[in-house]
## 1
Amino acid sequence: YLYSLEDFYVRESTMWLDVLEAFAQNSANIMPVLNEKGDYLGYYELNDVIGLFNESPFFNEAGGVLVVEKGINDYSFSEISQIVESNNGKLLGAFVSKMKN
């Protein structure tokens, strides 16, 4: 049983995007939460985590989608932000789907 539970948890300090990734990697809808000592604290439900993202400006504010198809070394995130903001735009979030050089 030890191996079936290995890495099937998140820490209480885990960032929300990493929690969402853990759900996806484990094809789960419930994720145990442990403290730094390894003690069980409770669990996250996938629907609750998705609800948190729905409340963020990145997902619920009206706006457009900008697709930038460049290599990771072509522009830094701060350069892309400066381009958007210098054109009176606001950058509420970013999603990176593929990273190529």
## 2
Amino acid sequence: MNKEKKFLIASALLPGAGQFLAGHIVKGVLFVIMHLLMGGILLAGLFSNVLYKFVSLGDKPEVRTIFKTTAGDNSLDYLVNGALFFIILILFTIFYVYNLKDAKKLGKFIDAGNSLPKGEKYRDYVMDEFFMPTFLTPGALGTIFIVFFPMLLTVLIAFTNYSGPDHLPPKNLFDWVGFDNFVRLIKYKELSKTFFVVAGWTLVWAILTTIFNFAAGLLLAIITNSRRIKFKGLWRAIFILPYAVPSFVSLLVFRLMFNGLGPINALLHTNIPFLTDPTGAKIIAILVNTWLGAPYFMVLISGALTNISSSLYEAADIDGATEWQKFKNITFPMLWIQLGSTMILTFAFNFNNFGAIYLLTNGLPADSSLRYAGHTDILVSWIYKLTMDNNLFSLAATVTIFIFLFVASISLLTLARSKTFNQEAVL
């Protein structure tokens, strides 16, 4: 039997054994430790009936009497433990398959007449082999448990009836309900109207704030980079100040200023409904967001402008091009190549910009025709109200899935079509 098959069978029976046989002790030890650790967690989960609890979500509710409270099953704990079990199972499978591939690779390497380095060369080999995985593994695990795990929980909750007042653990159990929440969101007139109205405003908000931020930043960058402007550094410092102040502080200050009894109305000796009129509140929200975001784009665009070759403008001057023609045919296309992806990310950020709405308007003014939402609420602030104010966790999770699918698809499609990622356009 050749080394390739021998190492493969050994690693299949005991992860890391093939690496030991090949003389790769460090890698073998790591494989053994990782598989023992994750295998132990999986076995502990199996012995504690984690799969049954995940499927059933509990059988015994909490019993409360005047004198005593008898603890029951906690559906949320069972859901979380089940999700963790499946994530660890996936990681275990990935490491196991990688262990087999690595053992096969080592066997093939030795069958070809090669040998692993020894002494200091082996130490250097180990350092080269494990340098990148050592630094990437913590970040990858952090992404899995901080980003992917909450996303998985959100998806799972969307298929349950986890909501108040009758299905809130630990007092009550909740159950799997399939696609009922998705049907409820579309079928019930009041919820459906709220969803589409809020989603429409969210889309308008994200598009306009992104365009306004870029346009204002572009204007400031062109002004501060103009040869006619003196004291450029001073002007840049002044324009960057709104970005230097924490955004939540600025938003609370603007909320106070545009209040019906705030200093602006007091100064004008009138009562303009800045935040109490639906249209006015939306306009103020967009303008305030522009105030906060324009300095960021000014800095980015100023840097991008310096990367545009002056020879392009000199050639345009020789051809008699106007300032507008130079901007249209040179400046803007070159900026878009460099900043197109940033625009897409800004759109995604503004689509979920909870702080700007919550701190400035809190979704107000109220709209009696909408369910749990106001005139200026965007989807993410509506989700906050569904969960924190009304305990409708399953419905909020359903809305979150729609947000993710929309933003992810739009972002990926736009990025795929963007010249930012087209190497030929750059060249």
## 3
Amino acid sequence: MRMKIVLAALNAKYVHSNLAVYDLEAYAKEHLKNDETELVIREYTINHNLDLILQSLYQEKAAVVAFSCYIWNIHEILTIAKELHKVAPDTRIWLGGPEVSFDSERLLQENVCIEGIIQGEGEVTFYEMTKVWSQKADVDRVAGIMYRDETGMIHQNPPRAIMSLDDVPFIYKDLTRFRNKILYYETSRGCPFSCSYCLSSIDKRVRFRSMELVERELQFFLDHRVPQVKFIDRTFNCKREHSLAIWRYITEHDNGITNFHFEISADLLGEEELEVFRHMRPGLIQLEIGLQSTNPETVKEIHRTMNIEKVKKNMLAVHAMHNIHQHLDLIAGLPYEDFITFRKSFDQAYDMKPDQLQLGFLKVLKGSYMEEQVEAYDLQYQDYQPYEVLCTKWISYDEILALKKVEEMVEVYYNSDQFAHTIPYLLSFYPSTFSFYAALGDYYEANDLFGIGFKREARYEALRQFAIADPTITDLSMTVLDDLLTYDYYLRENAKSRPAWRPEEPIDKIVYQQFFKNAGTDEVWLMKEGYDSKVAARTMHIEPVSSKSVAWILAEGISDYLQSADAVDTNEDKTCYCLFDYGKRNPLSKDAGVKILTHL
């Protein structure tokens, strides 16, 4: 009878896949010499009903269930493991992954249902354990595990030597297993940096997959036109020749569809990389950049090596290209970062013009240097996942809560990219960017707006009411505010109903239809093969705005997706018209193409 081993993963979202369990399965299958072992992968999400996951795993009738453990799923996994042990006491339960590799003894002591833990890199260890479980090898000869013997005694085996990344099989040969999933891919392991909050700093032995293999696998993704490939290399561009070779390859072999995501250090970018970026299709790559803090004391204490001015210079250079999405991370609760210095970090990060600004909160990871320093920092954090900071000697819990409000406002009003012209106008009334988002968060709290399931239009109305009510905002032009709110509102979609702050139809129906009839001959910008004025009138939208509002609309300059038919005198108060073309969307922002007209 074949021995069944289940590799179980609880992902954060349905679209995620667990690269680790697929790597373990692929490596073991490649080395197993017979078919006596059946390997099965079962993926769930943390939103699944735990009873249903228990039922599913129980019905597998497996000899072994091995769970892949991370900060976001450890609580659910331990809960399921305890219940599974009750109903299937003969099933051997093992854990692996970063959440259990550095705290193995405590976990085994507190959870008698767990037989053992695979520590660190798992491909070879898991394969060797399959032989142990089938009684063809001795457990005490397997490196990289901690386990409980039949008497209950816990044993720690020697650590596992690192493997060559070229020995890790390519798991995506059968893409049907990953339908509607993000594909994760690694070309390096380890990290040369020593950031105290990060587990990657523990293994500084950086290894790279050979470019021959990488290019072959990249071509596979491109040939199969997969939507997105997310590189999980910890600092993708830590070795310039490696990252440059990959960026050049995907640029030269671009299929017009696939997007690649990378985590990088922006200060390591040089002119060669920027030159490659300039030739990329909009949306070919997206960059995630860890800034964390701009406070020099904090940066030094967390062992970061970073040239902040170069980060800013490079991010602004990439921003000016209008073809690459940039995501920037900040972490609140780091040592030596108080409320005042974090405000400064926030403002400086915002000035780097990321497409998304992630205001995160310190997570105290098991095995990290940060965990060793909790007493020195007076660092209080949650006892449960995700082990998030509550307060430190530099920042109070009240201040953390204030930052939580700012985080929510940034997520809604900045990261959504649906208020891209209204927000800069309102920011002009504030002494700092942070003070604006803090005031907006206070308004939400005072009016019990947090936790409400807003419809899209209601977010605009809430921002409008805030601007009217806030005493900081003096000399507010309601014309400009309503123009910009309306512009942002229609930029994303051709709304079927008028917004509450501007309910009237802006243009006479006959004038509107006549414009599109004339546009077939007069407006070169609208000329397309098979142009149909009736279709154009339905699939486009025209909105009048004040010429003074146009200054805010054109603040970033003209582009392929924002054009102006004539020079607009923004000092005069005249009516201009914004023509939204939803068939010509910006591939990066998905906003409609816009042409500003001085007359119809």
## 4
Amino acid sequence: LCIMSALTTIIARARLLEPNGALSPLLQEIIRNCERRNIRYDRPLVHFIMNLLSLDPKFELFMETVSADRKNHDDFVEACCALLADDRSPTLLTLRMQAFFLDNFFDKDEIIEKHARNLQAKTFALTKEIIDNDVITKDEQDEVFNKVIQDIVINMGLGNPECSDVLAETMRALNSVMSRSDKAKFVTLERKDRLMALKDIREIVAGIRIFNKHSGNTANGMADLPKILDQSHESTKSILQITLCEIMDKVNLLTSALNAAIAYDLRNRSIITLLPENITADDVETLKDLLIMYRQHEVYTRKLIDELANIKLNIDSCKQEYEAKLLRIHEAVQYRTAIPTDRVFPKFSELTRVWLQFQNFIFLLSEMNQISNTLTNLTERCVTFDDLAYRLLGESQIQTDVDRLNKVSAKRLTLSDPKHCEIVPYEDSMQIQLLKFCLWHLAEGKGLLMPGSIELGVCRVQKEHYLFNIPEPVTFFDEDPNKYFFKIVETARKKVQLVCLLNVYDKVQSAYSAPRSEGFQMKLTTTCDQEVQTDLHPIPSNIDREYRWNVWDYRREAIRLANIRTKRTTSVQTLESSRAIPKATQIYVAKPQTTQTRVSRSTEMEQRRNGLGLKVIEPSAPSPLKVYALTLAQTSRSAFSRNGERSN
């Protein structure tokens, strides 16, 4: 079963995560729309969603008989962008979960190889200095072996390479393996031979340090990996079990709420949804999507728990081998003062290999914890709908899957006149389709996930096995199985997250009305970004800078030239302005000055004199105005008299 599960995962990854070359023009358009709308995306998720949505024939992406329709392609792009837009919806979070798990779970050999590559990349420069440098003097030789000590500590995981005690103890172990002449011979080896010798030295020195730690001689900086593995296993197991309990609480609530909102119309062979007040059909669909998300999280968590159990078996086997290797070394060195190196060194190398397996198990547990944390973070990002679920539940009680199935444990599936199906008892070796969910609820409930009961029996059709939740619908299914298969396919096209959850990719693809032929290419009328680099022109170019391809450009130019004829252009040139130099002007300091603007004047009045009681007025000098008036009068009379004489 584990091999089948791994094979299924590999096939699903190849089909759903790999980019489809025929859809690449639409991919570019989806990315442009996402950037224009500020929608966050990552390419693997976009590939995943496109491959799932392309299974729906309503977009007509792969139909040979239908001409290319731009509207269908626009609808496909809009459907992908709509899924990516709401990053807290149950549907998108389920798709993210599926894409992440398919991409990361769980090839143990690949994880170990990835860690080895990372460690090799970190120590590449140090290893290169060891095997490339030419050594002449004794100081250079000592410097090379100081680097060898650091290389052994880092690659074998023997402690902190910056701790002097760790380096000193490793140096003592190295000196017990290599004499001064051996070191001199090592630095004279060719590059390839020196690298092989370095790998052997790593294993032997690390084995000596591990043996010394077990013997109680020294243990500076070395971790007790078997003890750490036991603690890590228990911690990971506890976290996964707590996570599974939290998931099942949500699953039981949502399943009970949806079960309370449906009724069976067996006469019409359908399921009726009973909507309480203030709850719409969209709310029920949202709860279905939420249940799908938690069921998917449950499936992945159970897979992690199963994988953890397998790792625990391997850890126990490795611990037994570790103890056996140590015992053999103790037996080989006990009560002996000298031991041939060809007998004891291979034992140290074998012990080191077991030690490295312990390190690999630690990396596997760390990777498993990271996967679990990522899945949990995705479900926690979803908008909570607990209040809606409790309102839909009403006065009904929350039931577990076991409680729900115990109600029908006494019943059995029966067919009085089998046409297409047969009823068989359940066996552990059976591979139940649709993840053991009830086929009838899934088809008639439009994506309603209700667990099937193995106590009722198993319905076998076309060499596949299906479960039911209640016994009556098996008669309907026996009459026309393809009808219900088609309904499940239609549901999976609308709720694309069901394709991975129920593993129905093959059924959905085979139900496509016009499957792709081997050499068929999708008909597209889309645009794409393209860059073209041409060679130099074979004939000399003749580029007219004044060329206008539009007649209106010529008209505007003619108007501009006509307006210029009415203008006058003037210019001013100052003399020798090009040789102008800075000049300074000296002015006098301001002096205080005053201005008289007013003249004081007076008028002399007549003086009065008294004489003998009589008032005598003395004539005064005529005023200038009076003199002017008299002069003017005389001039006028003389002119008049002359004119009179002339007239006579």
